[in-house]
Specification:
- The chain is α+β, with helices and mostly antiparallel strands.
- The protein folds into two domains: about 5-155 and about 320-445, 3-Layer(bba) Sandwich (FAD/NAD(P)-binding domain), CATH 3.50.50.60; about 160-320, Elongation Factor Tu (Ef-tu), domain 3.
- Helix content is about 30%, strand content about 15%.
- The protein has helices at about 10-20, 65-75, 80-85, 100-110, 140-150, 190, 200-215, 235-240, 290-300, 325, 350-370, 385-395, 425-445, and strands at about 5, 25-30, 55, 85-90, 95, 115-120, 130-135, 155-160, 165, 175-180, 195-200, 265-275, 280-285, 310, 315-320, 335, 335-340.
- The protein has a six-stranded mixed sheet, covered by helices on one side. It has a six-stranded antiparallel sheet with strand order 10-11-12-13-9-14.
- Strand 16 (about 335) and strand 17 (about 335-340) form a beta hairpin.
- This is Methylenetetrahydrofolate--tRNA-(uracil-5-)-methyltransferase TrmFO.
- It holds the Pfam family GIDA.
- One of its GO terms (cellular component) is cytosol.
- Belongs to the MnmG family. TrmFO subfamily.
- Keywords: Cytoplasm, FAD, Flavoprotein, Methyltransferase, NAD, NADP, Transferase, tRNA processing.
């Protein structure tokens, strides 16, 4: 039986390998780290998370990404299994202890009899065999050039910014308080999963001034700064209007200052626990392209962080993705070279979960092909199906940009009330329908 080769051991590549191996296929994962490093990665582990430790909402009835969690769990996904095993309190979100999570994914894959790991950088597109390219947002320059040469189209790139991480013992707990927005969570620990730093109007205005004046990272010649709106640097948001941050990551709604309940904060900066020990917190939504010295100065203007010590400052890096609507078929194959599939963020999905879901799909499709079967994509009524439909033809190729899963990608459910008041019933109808279609798609494969 032929072997499946996967380039890239991130979330998508790891999930693709797991799914194919479970179907009895021999898999080789080609991972350049740690031999060849990247700006953002710190280890050689598979499935290393770099931008955040959150998989976002885990609500499978009212949230599209929570539904995607449900679908991956139902399909025996390794990423979801390990995320659940290394879960941290995060209100209604699924956050993980990132280093043990990556170590556990690495162990499960390397221990599987059908999986082997081959270190080293791949620099050319293979002419034969079964391949999945899952190199993610930090595709190497050489491989990126090979992809560009093959497709005949310019690579599309935007810049992905990383939020800073603060040591817990450097946070002033007499200023901050523990509370998830709107007290979300089933347990007391979940309801207090975030630390909140309140700002007065004067503090907020001074903070915005400092953001706008801070020294920023400059782009190299030939680079274009086209940001994905779901991961905008805070200073770019501030440039769009002085109130933008106060209606985004610094919104004060759903929070009550435990130290002064009668006084409503003008803005709030939230910190989310970043590891199981509780020794690290990341600043939620604070991706940045400020230079390191400016970051230390500006972030210490946040009440409670005046003496903050940073385990990691923010950063910025190129995020590469292909124009999937023009380049891929609905089996995720490169039209010009059908022996190669693409998976993960390089296909133009945005987010850890979405990337892993595309890996799950590519792994199953490639394995089915090796076994002499054709696996059709899941129905567009499912979260996974809505994503693959969007990136392989549903999106407008001329304006194609990375996309998170959202209910706007799903076919409408007829007869439901529109608008905000009907949203709860509408979302529940979307997720109920999706779960039925997803189970049927799995059952048709003879495995779940």
């Amino acid at each position: 039986m032929e072997t499946l080769h996967i380039i890239g051991g991130g979330l998508a590549g790891s999930e693709a390998a797991w799914q194919a191996a479970k179907m009895g296929i021999n898999v080789v994962i080609h991972e350049m780290r740690p031999t060849v490093g990247t700006f953002a990665h710190k280890t050689g582990n598979l499935a290393e998370m770099v931008c955040s430790n959150s998989f976002r909402s885990d609500d499978s009835e009212q949230n599209a990404v929570g539904l995607l969690h449900w679908e991956m769990r139902a399909a025996g996904g390794l990423i979801m299994e390990m995320a659940d095993a290394h879960r941290l309190p995060a209100g209604g979100a699924l956050a993980v202890d990132r280093d043990p999570f990556a170590a556990a994914v690495t162990a499960r894959l390397t221990e599987h009899p059908n999986v082997s790991l081959q270190p080293g950088e791949m620099t050319v597109l293979p002419d034969s065999g079964h391949w999945i390219i899952a190199t993610g947002p930090l595709t190497s320059t050489a491989l990126g050039a090979a992809i560009q040469a093959e497709t005949g189209a310019d690579r599309l790139a935007f810049f992905d910014a990383i939020a800073p991480i603060v040591y817990t013992d450097s946070i002033d707990m007499s200023v901050t308080w523990a509370q998830s927005r709107y007290d979300k969570g089933d347990t007391e620990e979940e309801r207090k999963a975030y630390l909140n730093c309140p700002m007065t109007k004067a503090q907020y205005e001074a903070f915005i001034d400092a953001l706008l004046e801070a020294e920023k990272t400059e782009f190299h010649d030939g680079e274009t700064a086209t940001y994905f709106d779901g991961c905008l640097p805070i200073e770019v948001m501030a440039e769009r209007g002085r109130e933008t941050l106060r209606h985004g990551p610094m919104k004060p709604v759903g929070l009550t200052n435990a130290h002064n309940p009668s006084e409503k904060p003008y803005a709030v900066v939230q910190l989310r626990r970043d590891n199981a020990l509780g020794t690290l917190y990341n600043i939620v939504g604070f991706q940045t392209k400020m230079k390191y010295g400016a970051q230390s100065t500006v972030f210490r203007m946040i009440p409670g962080l005046e003496n903050a010590s940073f385990a990691r400052l923010g950063g910025i890096h190129r995020n590469t993705f292909i124009n999937s609507p023009t380049l891929l078929d609905d089996r995720m194959r490169l039209r010009s070279r059908p022996n190669i599939r693409f998976a993960g963020q390089v296909t133009g999905v945005e987010g850890y979960v979405e990337s892993a879901a595309m890996g799950l799909l590519a792994g199953r499709m490639a394995a089915a092909e090796i076994l002499g079967r054709d696996l059709a994509p899941p129905p567009p009524e499912t979260a996974t199906g809505a994503l693959i439909t969007h990136i392989t033809g549903g999106a407008e190729a001329k304006t194609f940009q990375p996309m998170n899963v959202n209910f706007g990608l799903f076919p409408p459910v007829e007869g439901l009330r529109g608008g905000r008041r009907g949203r709860k019933d509408r979302y529940k109808a979307y997720t109920d329908r999706a779960k039925t279609f997803w189970r049927e798609w799995l059952d048709a494969q003879g495995a779940s």
